[in-house]
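Possible regression after last week's pipeline update?

I re-ran a chain I had predicted before the update to compare outputs. Posting the input and the new output here so someone can diff against the archived version. Not blocking, just want to make sure nothing changed silently.
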Amino acid sequence: MRLSLTVLLVTLALCCYEANATLCPAFRTELRSFFLDPEELYNLNLLRFFPPREASEAMIKVKQCVDRMPKQSRQKAHDAVEGIVSICNK
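New output (post-update):
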């Protein structure tokens, strides 16, 4: 549950920054993949951003931790993030 709260707070910070309140569609897709896709698909999605190897490995470790959550909990966390994104993109 702590991880979900962390992701939620980071998303809120990214969305509601004064300079630009719209969220990049590619990042939105990456967030959906983070919560709902299997690790292999998430890894492919993550590679679109050309992250450094260390950052990619760190995100995969976090993804493995998130994948231990029940599917229903991951869906709820994703729905919460989507709710924030929809408010920020108005």
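Follow-up from reviewer: compared with the archived run. The mean pLDDT is 82. Marking as no regression found.
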